[in-house]
Amino acid sequence: MGIEQDPSKHTPSHTRFQRGSSSIRRPHRRAAESSATPSGGVSYVSTPSMVGPEEYDYDPIDTDFYLLAKSYFDCREYRRAAHVLRDQTGKKAVFLRCYALYLAGEKRKEEEMIELEGPLGKSDALNRELVSLERELSTLRKNGTIDPFGLYIYGLVLKEKGNENLARSVLVESVNIYPWNWSAWSELQALCTTIEALNSLNINNHWMKDFFLASAYQELRMHNESLAKYEYLQGTFTFSNYIQAQIAKAQYNLREFEQVEVIFEELLRNDPYRIEDMDMYSNVLYAKECFSALSYLAHRVFLTDKYRPESCCIVGNYYSLKGQHEKSVMYFRRALKLNKNYLSAWTLMGHEYVEMKNTSAAVDAYRRAVDINPCDYRAWYGLGQAYEMMGMPFYALHYFKKSVFLQPNDSRLWIAMAQCFETEQLHMLEEAIKCYKRAVNCNDREAIALHQLAKLHCELGQTEEAAFYYKKDLERMEAEEREGPNMVEALMFLAQHCKTQKKFDEAEVYCTRLLDYTGPEKETAKSLLRGIRYARDVVEHFPP
Amino acid sequence: MAAISKPPASFAITPHKLSICVLVQVYAPPSQISIPFPFSSVSHHNRLGVFLLSLTKACDGIFEPTLDELIAQLREVAGLLNHWLSDHLTRRLSSLASPDDLFNFGILGGSDANVMDDDQIMLDPNSIIGMFIRRCLLAFNQMSFEGICHLLTNIGTYCKESISGYPPYELSHLDDSTNDPNPSFEFENMEMDNFVYENVSEDFEESKMGIGRSPSQGHAPKDFPELVEDTSISPRPTLEHNDMNAEVYPGALSSSDMSKDMGALGGTFLYTSWQVQGYLSEQAVAIEKHGSSFPLNAFESILKKLQQLAPELHRVHYLRYLNSLYHDDYPGALENLHRYFDYSAGTEGVECVSPPSGCSSFGRYEIALLCLGMMHFHLGHPKQALEVLTEAVRVSQQYSDDTCLAYTLAAISNLLAEIGVSKTSGIIGSSCWPVAGIGTSLSVQQQLFVLLRRSLKRAESLKLKRLVASIHLEIAKYDIMHVQRPLLSFGPKASMKLRTHPASVYKELWSSSHLINEFGEESSLMTTDGAFCTAWLRSLKKPTASLIFAQENDTESCSDAFEFIAQPSSIPGSVLQLLGSSYLVRASSWEMYGSAPLARINALVFATCFADSSSLSDAALAYSKLIQHLAVYKGYKDAFAAMRIAEKKFMCVSRSRILLVKLQVLHECALHRGHLKLAQQFCDELGVLASCVSGVDMELKTEASLRHARTLLSANQYSQAAAVAHSLFCTCYKFNLQVKNATVLLLLAEIYKRSGNAVLGIPYALACISFCQSFNLDLLKASATLTLAELWLSLGSNHAKKALALLHSSFPVLLGHGGLELRSRAFITEAKCYLADPSFSVSDSPEMVLEPLRQASEELQLLEYNELAAEAFYLMAIVYNKLGQLDEREEAASSFRKHITAFENPEDMDDSVYGML
Q: Where does the Anaphase-promoting complex subunit domain start and stop, copy by copy (chain B) (predicted)?
């Protein structure tokens, strides 16, 4: 299947054209294919009748120059490539020249970033080719002699220059003419940070649009919509690793870890040298504490390519699971060195620092994560946690509020916030109760919330509510067949409560259940039973 | 941050620094002549020296000047030499074409690291300029080849800009005009920002002109965020210290289209971090001083640029926090505050960029709490503020940060004093409350009292002089407003002797102003110097920029006096501010104790000497005091004239303070003119200004209902007035406002007097007098005595003698300190006493009666108090009638008629005054 290769490339855009043959030729082949692809009764617009890229490069001299430039390009000698093509006017040549210039500028920018970095982290190195590229491409666009790839470059340049609106429309133009350029789609997606922006795009109906939308939904944290889209696409592209990985991602965000694990296992069977998204798999393995599986994954990934941020992250996770936090931090740092804006590494490093009780470093790491992406609820949560550790619960509340705002359906966040309210320093029990209630509504897996709710109500002297929640907790524990001190506590309270409420039958039931346990509770239950019998006698003999 | 630590590159060379080097070479050539070649005189020579010195230290912005600007400044300095110098400069700079030229470039040349060759320049290597040169040398010698290449390109840009002037790339910007609101990394936006910047930079400059005059970081005594900075960068960076970490930001770009303000497009360079820091703290002071009149967006865009250029300079977040705080942007302030402290861990100062893992310390997050508390306080969330500050106390105790604890305690007491006696017992009663040891039975004031003493002791032991001074002030304020009773004797047996202690107030004030003697060792070398240099440089710009400043109004005119104020040895602004507010406290204490002239003098002292260095809201307070004084002693015309001036001066700042006094004066005025509907309206508006939270803004609330009662009284609705006064009395009692209660008692006496129940009124008057006696409220006591006299008099003519005796006993205070109304009332009562006295005959000594009446009528006319004026003229007419002086009688009678008609038809009066609303 041709499609799976292109979208699945998640590598930075400028490496795309270096790997193997240029995708300029490939899409054409696919274009022919794709007319046959959507068979499942999907009403896609037919493939745009755009001329194939080969059609406009007939000039033999042009082709020679082009081939020379392409070879230079493949050897990463971008300026040389651009120089060879300086007088060429073929669309393909123009594109290659612009792209080579752009990449040359990017390369220089990266170098300068290191050369010029000061202690205050100045990073205003710029791609110097942008200005001239923009000028040239805008004239080309005005003259109408620009092809979709040129438009893509133009959009890229505009985006870098910060002219987002124009960039968006240029990229839309590009993908409308030639929908199979995933790079253009992903640039476009980076420009759609809100659902409104996404909806306002005027994109022709095409199956690539579905890929785009699914991915955009994922970025916008509309996980269910994204999952639905991907599942729909999977119907058509049954064997796509890319779609499978994306489904795993969506499931991961919905915290369906079991399914994620299954998917990744299958994915690794089909695509054993895959590194992309594997950090997520490692997170799942971490959460499930699968030591050996995680170490196996780390090993495999490291053999494939150790200098990928994902690989470092996986190793970091492994060490973290082993409790070797210093080492783990070291690998996260390496990941960050490879990609300074690698969000999850910042967050995970924050977690490590929290484990190491180095709260200020943790705060710093989390804050950087948050500044990269203000929607990262984990980092906000981590910030709150760090401040709570320092004994500043009121200050921590601000962060918990943020994280809860971003992820209102996660019971753990609500519980953390409730515990913050519950601390002896704040002792704001009413608020804590509200939070626990939200947690209960969010399907609290660890079942902390119900128990705490009961306890808090009990503490506030609201016995009716307390009894209600104890009962619910009891039901739940029965359903999940859990035992433990909570069970005893619930039974004890309920027995006493029912007795004072004169519901002797019910109280008796609870007491007899208590008798199953050893310890002081058993004795109390016995005396309670005696009391109940006595009270019942009194009621019978002297009816009110 | 620990994760990505890089070797701190020290002081780097920029084209601007290179030009300074060139100029230094001119300034100090190796020749032995006392006045080297191009200079004509010693002073001429020195002027360039001062200029160079200033260039190395000025903190007037974040970017180094371009060559054009430098040449423009040179023109001001060098006079005739200007052409020679600028030619020399540009020639030297543009002669650099290859990296090798840099190695052969005058001072920088020579392979010897950081040694100044004597044959190149003649300069003391330890002088400031010498040090600068040495730093340049060192930086150059440490430079990598890439760095030298960059420097070369930058020099090219630097020179080209000044020659070619304008953009070759205009085309590219034409179609970029869409402005995206997204504030991320966008060049387009940057351009827009520049636009904004250009537009607003004028008024920004203008405001900066005002700011530059305060040569140090002033801290408002109330504004602790600033005070905290003292602690957070407590090791004052000395010069040597700064040498180590000064840093420059060479821009990278070849694109020459943007000149000065295109930070991100290169060609411009940040100042050394020392200079940027100086700039930022100057701006912080300015924000606090100017409050909401500070240009929000202009400064925000500068900060944004700065943040892009120096993402690790976390101070920027703090400035953003201050900026949004003073513009009442709650979410923005909150967000930036949290961000600042997350990054800096409370330990900032750029001095500490070393990764926190290096210093194992915990970080000082309690300062974050303190700031957050102050923020909530500032934005009017006392409850949250208290909660946060309590946490701050706990955390700083936990980590034994005594300094922060001292500041926090002071902040809490400030908070308690401001929100006064709110029903905070819910919070205060909680176990973690810092004064829990005393138990919760204490009233809030007593807690405040204990807290103040505690924090004073702590501050003294920590030698935080400013804090000590401001706590002394706070205690003085407390002593004025609150009645003390022995702390430990409660219950029915304890003697309920309530007293105020003016002596202790003045003792506190004295110990507060004592600070001025001690500021010497604390004065901050850094900013003083920087500000001086900034001011000096700015004075150069002035002639060329005079068009902009021409329309500055006279209030700002003293900015010309920068030379006077920017003396390097001048007193730190924070100390000046503290001193200033001590004068304000003095003024209000005298107001209270009843000495009008002294109150006025103190307010005047403040307005003339400290208004420049203090925050605008304090200045507004002083002005409002003066306006009130005018209204009471000089009549409303003057007061309104003064008010117009004040309103213009405090256009948008501290509106509420001026608004308050305006409403007060208008209410009085309407009341006197008999315009009761309007009076009621003003009174209601006054009440609306108070916060709706119970227990907050008690001052204002009691004032509003007091005025309400007075309005009702004027409308002869006695029972309603009495009801309002009674409930007011209860409120005051509940919130322990004893001093206010004295006033309420007097009002009640007045009500009974007016309603004809003199017998009922007398006890109230007597109670008021005894209150006043123990609280030292002399003026109030005098006016209570006056009321008592009136009450006696209304009981019948046989009490006239007694009334007169009472009246005469308090005459000195009444006439010496009383306002127009009080004086004339006293005069009229005196006349009435004489007239009522059966043993007194008018024909024997007519002047005894006529003189006071004449006085009274004159003053009342000034005050436009028609009702009372009518009474005075009525009495006069009667006396003249008795004496048989018919002409005078007619005159008095017609005056009487004029006033009585004016009183009955208040609408006829000119409404110009009310147009002020």
A: 317-416
